[in-house]
C-alpha cells in the first residue's frame, strides 16, 4: 500500500513532533546542545517569530518529518535550512527530499537568494540529500554547534 505524504506548515499541533523528531537523530549521533533545546522547545519564539518557517511531513496524517528555515546570522546568506529530521520508520521513502525541496521552494517564494546549512560528515545520507538538492560545501564559518564539521550553501534562482 502506498502511503499518502503531504507537507504542511507548522502549527502548535506539531510542536511535540518537531521536538521529538529532531531529538531522536541528535541524541542518536550527538548530544543535545543549548541551541537545540531553545529552538526545539520554543519554535515559535526562536524560529517563527524571527521570520522563520517550519514544514511538517505527514504520512497518512501522522508527522514523520520536519524541517525549518531560519533567518541566517551569517553575512551573505538569507536563510538557514535547519532542524531537518525524518523518523527512522519513514526513512527511505523520499520524505527528506520532499521536505528539502519544499523548504527551497518556500525560500524562493519569499525572495531569498542564498541558503546555508550546517551538518556533520558522519550523517552521510543527509549530506547526499543536500548535494542532490544542489548544496555545495563551503569553508570559513565558525559554527555555534560542537557537532558541526561541514557547512554548505545553495544559491537560489532569485540571486
TrEMBL record:
SUPFAM superfamilies: Acyl-CoA N-acyltransferases (Nat) (SSF55729). InterPro entries: Acyl_CoA_acyltransferase (IPR016181), Bact_Acetyltransf (IPR050832), GNAT_dom (IPR000182). The keyword Transferase applies. Gene3D superfamilies: 3.40.630.30. The keyword Ribonucleoprotein does not apply. It holds the Pfam family Acetyltransf_1. Residues 16-157 form the N-acetyltransferase domain. One of its GO terms (molecular function) is acyltransferase activity, transferring groups other than amino-acyl groups. Keywords: Acyltransferase, Transferase. CDD domains: NAT_SF (cd04301). This is N-acetyltransferase domain-containing protein.
Amino acid at each position: 500500500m502506498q502511503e499518502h505524504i503531504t507537507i504542511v506548515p507548522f502549527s502548535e499541533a506539531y510542536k511535540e513532533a518537531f521536538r521529538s523528531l529532531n531529538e531522536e537523530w541528535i541524541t542518536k549521533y550527538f548530544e543535545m546542545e543549548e541551541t537545540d533545546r531553545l529552538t526545539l522547545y520554543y519554535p515559535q519564539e526562536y524560529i517563527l517569530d524571527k521570520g522563520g518557517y517550519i514544514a511538517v511531513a505527514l504520512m497518512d496524517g501522522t508527522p514523520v518529518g520536519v524541517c525549518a528555515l531560519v533567518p541566517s546570522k551569517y553575512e551573505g546568506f538569507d536563510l538557514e535550512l535547519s532542524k531537518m529530521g525524518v523518523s527512522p520508520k519513514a526513512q527511505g521513502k523520499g520524505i527528506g527530499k520532499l521536505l528539502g525541496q519544499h523548504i527551497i521552494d518556500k525560500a524562493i517564494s519569499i525572495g531569498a537568494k542564498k541558503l546555508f546549512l550546517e551538518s556533520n560528515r558522519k550523517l552521510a545520507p543527509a549530506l547526499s540529500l543536500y548535494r542532490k538538492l544542489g548544496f555545495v560545501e563551503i569553508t570559513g564559518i565558525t559554527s555555534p554547534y560542537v557537532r558541526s564539521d561541514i557547512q554548505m550553501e545553495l544559491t537560489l534562482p532569485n540571486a
